[in-house]
Task: inverse folding
């Protein structure tokens, strides 16, 4: 019967379907069991990565103030655009799209990523630091496409004025080497690379915070899970005086020369002003300097990255004469009344040495010798004292040694000695060589900062103070004065003998000497000019065709007031032609200092110092092609 | 017409399981869309209306003897074809496809009802013959299936169109189609696959399949959904994250969570435990329906029940597999749970027919 057969077939086939469906559902259940129970941990982590983000909250660096509380270095908010590989689904695609959005070369972006390839993936790789608003906006609108690109608000160093660049230094991304040496640093940190930013980096750097947030599928933050506030770096107060610093830099600008200046409080070594010119703009480094700009700075012939104040070594010329005089006096070889006759030149060991004044100074004593800066007088004294005793007393006064200033990479100057020559040149010192040392020429080469210490030591009667820039630190509960670094040395100097030198220095400025340009009535400025050859006269004629600037350097070293000095310092004009030119710059500095001290309105920088720009040795430019 | 004793033969267990699945669906829709700041926050209300309408449809399907429907099946079939044609020319376009007829209260999707129409017409067609269907019978049945298939696929809605094929295969199978023929059909499909790949499939369809084989290839598009589906399910664990506490669905990492991926949300929030409950309910519904087919008074009834069940089962299995990221992403909803009015009404109406056949097993 077909009906029965049909019924049996239907029943059979329905049973088969029953089994098939049951098997399929069992397989589904097993699949879910594998996903939800066996592999649960893996997927739970993936789900968490999906919706949780940890954002770094960058700590701002500490603010830096001048001695009167004026802000010298602060922070501003900037945006950085980074790739967070932890959330990358397709890094290559992200690089391609991001480069397109930002208008960058894809290869350039890839290079940056490759440089950070070995870092943990949860650390963002900064592609643009200090991004423009337009860049930030264009990345934001494509957030959906770029879930692994994060925009961070980053505090960035700001130097409100282009000032004291070499004292402040600059900041930059920490090097791999530093990261490996210091556990507290991590890749991507911004650290001080020069100046006080580097020396006091430990205090200035804050502690970064973090924020863990829940985001939805388009990357919008839904809520914060936990937040660790960043801790701002400590505030530092410097010994610098903003107004004095400005006066120094204005002075150089008006004079039109490069060079260096260091101004100290001679009683404790506080640095009131510190300049090296030309200077760079620290702001250019704050958000990461590009290679081309950095290369331009490095290759600049004027060497703006060199800190001339602590790294430049120059012949001091006549400013060295006080060290020679003190050696003679303290060693008992001369007295202040020791007289020498200047006929415009003198002969030692068969060589004739000229005085700067051809007609001669006649017979003069120590005071007049300093005041008139008579070369023959100091040839004579140096010859009597000998190079080793000059070396001893110059060193006592801080010359030819490091000052110990709290700035990185200070260089040591040189005051020659017989020992030095033997060690260095394996040659005997010839007595004739001492003659030029007597006027600060020959092998003598000194850093401007050591000249400032030298004047401070003469001013305070023998305490070789340590110049320092840090005055106080705010640990969070108000200002705590920073400990004053102890003096490098205290030298026993007979006040009566020192007084003769100081009388001479007073005369330089106030007695018709070479430093008259620095005179301020009633302030008893004491100082000494110096003009130092960059190259010998004969050498200079030979090099006449060279483009190099071979004009003489101009120095002025000073302290004031004479009897109770409150300020001591140095103005070094690179290729400043004449020492008295430097005295003009010093005048503006001292005028500002005393005006501020007495509460008078600060003097405006003069329009013109009326300097002597005539180069006595200048040659006419070589006639062009004569063939 | 509706005799009192029929009331006692209603399969209350099946009806209860079906309604339990509907309730589960409403809860999940509420969970994924009840954000008061969003316009979709009232979706669950719409779904409740759809269930109510569906129950009305179910009631209507129960009241009239199923033979009354099969007798008029050719008219119903032609009527549905007309609706599909209407959609093709005047339908509302949404998300790039012309699938809907806009009515005042909701948008009608005729393709959902085409399944029932096809089940009716095939049950009638094969039920009239005795013995194993001949080649010609299979060919006629195939044509009856392919006409609505083509119309729906043209919308384009290949997903829904494909659900028609199990209807034909199941009814033909039960009618006694030889296994040899089934095997040959399968072989033909296998051979046709490369040809289809080359000529018939659109680029986006090819992309979906190749993405399925390697999801990382398109980590943002279809592959993204597949990966996210797997994460959603896997992160649910044994217990689940709790009602409305799923991060994947709530934070919208999973697209159309209230619709195609509702089962993933269930897996995330209710865990493996919830999955077992839902799978159990579906399995119960399917086995109970197979039982109804077995108990049917005549072949007509058995074929009708299986025809209705075939597309339902196919869709359930495919959607759940896809929800776990184990099948290519296709816009196929999960019957009874996914959000969608037409699907809900059509499915409940289908179960009305199933109950109808079962409760009339003793009538003449």
Result:
């Amino acid at each position: 019967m077909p009906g029965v057969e049909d019924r049996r077939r239907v029943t059979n086939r329905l049973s088969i379907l029953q089994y098939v469906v049951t098997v399929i559902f069992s397989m589904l259940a097993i699949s879910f069991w594998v996903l939800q129970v066996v592999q649960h941990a893996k997927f739970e982590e993936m789900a968490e990565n999906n919706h949780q983000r940890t954002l770094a909250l960058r700590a701002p660096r500490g603010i830096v103030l001048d001695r009167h509380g004026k802000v010298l270095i602060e922070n501003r908010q900037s945006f950085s655009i980074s790739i967070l590989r932890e959330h990358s689904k397709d890094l290559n695609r992200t690089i391609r799209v991001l480069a397109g959005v930002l208008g960058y070369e894809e290869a350039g972006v890839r290079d940056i990523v490759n440089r950070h390839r070995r870092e943990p993936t949860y650390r963002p790789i900064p592609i643009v630091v200090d991004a423009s608003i337009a860049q930030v906006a264009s990345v934001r609108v494509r957030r959906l496409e770029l879930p692994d690109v994060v925009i961070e608000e980053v505090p960035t160093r700001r130097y409100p004025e282009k000032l004291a660049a070499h004292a402040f230094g600059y900041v930059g991304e920490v090097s791999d080497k530093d990261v490996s040496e210091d556990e507290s640093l991590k890749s991507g940190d911004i650290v001080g690379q020069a100046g006080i930013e580097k020396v006091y980096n430990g205090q200035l750097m804050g502690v970064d915070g973090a924020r863990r947030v829940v985001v939805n599928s388009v990357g919008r933050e839904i809520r914060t899970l936990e937040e660790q506030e960043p801790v701002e770096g400590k505030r530092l107060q410097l010994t610098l005086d903003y107004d004095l610093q400005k006066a120094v830099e204005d002075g150089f600008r008006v004079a039109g020369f490069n060079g260096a200046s260091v101004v100290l409080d001679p009683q404790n070594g506080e640095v009131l002003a510190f300049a090296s010119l030309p200077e760079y703009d620290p702001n250019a480094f704050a958000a990461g300097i590009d290679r081309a700009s950095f290369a331009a700075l490095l290759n600049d012939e004027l060497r703006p990255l060199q800190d001339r104040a602590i790294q430049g070594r120059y012949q001091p010329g006549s400013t060295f004469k006080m060290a020679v005089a003190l050696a003679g006096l303290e060693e008992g070889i001369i007295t202040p009344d020791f007289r020498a006759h200047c006929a415009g030149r003198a002969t030692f060991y068969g060589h004739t040495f000229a005085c700067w004044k051809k007609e001669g100074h006649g017979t003069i004593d120590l005071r007049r010798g300093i005041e008139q800066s008579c070369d023959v007088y100091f040839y004579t004294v140096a010859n009597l004292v000998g190079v080793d005793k000059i070396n001893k007393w110059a060193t006592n006064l801080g010359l030819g040694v490091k000052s110990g200033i709290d700035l990185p990479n200070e260089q040591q100057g040189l005051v020659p000695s017989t020992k030095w020559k033997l060690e260095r040149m394996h040659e005997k010192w010839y007595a004739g060589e001492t003659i030029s040392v007597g006027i600060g020429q020959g092998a003598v080469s000194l850093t401007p900062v050591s000249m400032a210490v030298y004047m401070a030591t003469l001013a305070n009667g023998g305490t070789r103070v340590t110049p320092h820039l840090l005055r106080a630190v705010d640990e969070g509960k108000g200002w705590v004065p920073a400990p004053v670094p102890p003096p490098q040395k205290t030298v026993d100097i007979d006040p009566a003998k020192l007084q003769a030198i100081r009388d001479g220095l007073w005369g330089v400025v106030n007695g018709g000497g070479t430093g008259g340009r620095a005179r301020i009535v009633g302030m008893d400025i004491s100082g000494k000019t110096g003009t130092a050859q960059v190259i010998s006269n004969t050498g200079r004629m030979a090099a006449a065709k060279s483009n190099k600037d071979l004009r003489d350097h101009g120095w002025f070293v000073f302290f004031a007031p004479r009897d109770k000095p409150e300020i001591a310092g140095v103005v070094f004009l690179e290729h400043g032609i004449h020492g008295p030119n430097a005295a003009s710059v010093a005048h503006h500095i001292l005028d500002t200092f005393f005006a501020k001290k007495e509460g008078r309105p600060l003097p405006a920088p003069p329009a013109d110092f009326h300097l002597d720009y005539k180069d006595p040795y200048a040659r006419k430019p070589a006639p062009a092609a004569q063939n | 017409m509706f005799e009192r004793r029929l009331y006692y033969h209603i399969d209350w267990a099946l009806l209860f399981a079906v309604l339990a699945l509907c309730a589960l669906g409403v809860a999940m829709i509420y969970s994924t869309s009840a954000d008061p700041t969003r316009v979709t926050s009232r979706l669950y209300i719409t779904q409740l209306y759809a269930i109510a309408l569906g129950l009305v449809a179910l009631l209507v399907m129960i009241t009239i003897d199923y033979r009354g429907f099969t007798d008029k099946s050719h008219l119903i079939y032609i009527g549905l074809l007309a609706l599909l044609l209407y959609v093709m020319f005047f339908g509302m376009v949404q998300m790039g496809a012309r699938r809907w007829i806009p009515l005042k209260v909701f948008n009608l999707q005729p393709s959902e009802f085409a399944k029932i129409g096809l089940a009716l017409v095939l049950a009638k067609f094969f039920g009239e013959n005795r013995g194993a269907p001949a080649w010609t019978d299979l060919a006629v049945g195939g044509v009856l299936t392919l006409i609505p298939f083509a119309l729906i696929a043209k919308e384009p809605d290949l997903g829904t169109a494909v659900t028609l094929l199990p209807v034909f295969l199941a009814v033909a199978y039960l009618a006694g189609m030889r296994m040899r023929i089934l095997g040959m059909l399968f072989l033909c499909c296998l051979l046709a696959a490369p040809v289809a790949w080359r000529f018939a499939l659109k680029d986006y369809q090819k992309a979906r399949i190749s993405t399925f084989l390697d999801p990382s290839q398109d980590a943002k598009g279809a592959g993204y959904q597949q990966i996210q589906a797997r994460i959603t399910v896997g992160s649910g664990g044994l217990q689940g994250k709790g009602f409305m506490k799923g991060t994947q669905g709530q934070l919208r990492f999973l697209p159309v969570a209230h619709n195609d991926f509702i089962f993933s949300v269930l897996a995330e929030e209710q865990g493996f435990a919830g999955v077992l409950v839902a799978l159990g309910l579906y399995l119960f519904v399917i086995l109970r329906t197979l039982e109804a087919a077995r108990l049917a008074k005549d072949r007509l009834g058995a074929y009708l029940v299986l025809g209705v069940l075939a597309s339902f089962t196919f869709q359930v299995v495919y959607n759940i597999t896809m929800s776990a990221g184990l099948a290519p992403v296709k816009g196929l909803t999960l019957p009874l749970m996914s959000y969608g009015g037409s699907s809900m009404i059509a499915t409940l109406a289908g179960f009305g027919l199933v109950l109808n056949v079962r409760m009339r097993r003793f009538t003449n």
Chain B touches chain A through 47 residues (CB under 8 Å).
